[in-house]
Amino acid sequence: MAYRVLFVCLGNICRSPAAEIVFNAAIERAGLKGRVKADSCGTASYHTGEKPDHRMLAALERAGYAWGGHRARTFCRADFERFDLIIPQDESNRNDILSLASGAEQAAKVRPMSDWFGPDEHEREVPDPYYGGPAGFDAVVRLLERATEALVQELREV
């Protein structure tokens, strides 16, 4: 059975679908396809059913990634049972997810994306690029590339 990873942000149209796409590419490069699977969702429901933000899709395309058809969905309590690791992109979403956990076992599945930031990383969480320009989306993709490579290295042990 595959190890399942869930990336979470607010609306599931910028950071978390980008993390899913970048991570899946890293999993494939590492030869772990089929052993590790990823998905993404948001803590807010106002983008449910939408595809990722066109600016994020453009940033991903500039970095060599393709959109796989994901549509936004909302985090639910059942995700604690469906996933082995739940990775919020920032502290606010981490707190929202933890508020839904029914106990220590579920809460232990939640780890912030920053757990895989390098020691020289100046960010403390994945910044939300939604209200900025293309450079912010590109910066998020590069940050996610670095973090997901570290995550993949950790998952080689799973």
Could you explain how this protein is built, in words?
The chain has one domain (3-155): Response regulator (Rossmann fold, 3-Layer(aba) Sandwich), CATH 3.40.50. 39% of the residues lie in helices and 11% in strands. The chain has 6 helices and 3 strands. The protein has helices at residues 15-29, 54-62, 79-82, 91-98, 104-107, 134-155, and strands at 3-9, 36-42, 85-88. The protein has a 3-stranded parallel β-sheet with strand order 2-1-3. The radius of gyration is 14 Å and the shape is globular. The chain starts with a strand and ends with a helix.
Question: Could you provide a short overview of the structure?
Answer:
The protein has 158 residues and is an alpha/beta fold. It has helices at residues 15-29, 54-62, 79-82, 91-98, 104-107, 134-155, and strands spanning 3-9, 36-42, 85-88.
List keywords for this structure.
single chain, 158 residues, alpha/beta, Rossmann fold, three-stranded parallel sheet, 3 strands, globular
- Overall structural class, as computed from helix and strand content, comes to alpha/beta
CATH homology-level superfamily: Response regulator
| Tally of discrete structural domains | 1
CATH third-tier fold name: Rossmann fold
Separate helix tally: 6
**How much β-strand is present in the residues?**
5-15%
Assign the CATH architecture.
3-Layer(aba) Sandwich
Count of strand segments? 3
Shape: globular
- How are the strands of the biggest sheet laid out side by side? 2-1-3
CA radius of gyration is 14 Å
**Helix content, binned percent:** 25-40%
Poorly predicted ranges:
none
| CATH class designation | Alpha Beta
Order of helices and strands: EHEHHEHHH
Mean pLDDT: 97
Largest sheet: 3 strands, parallel
User: Termini distance?
Assistant: 11 Å
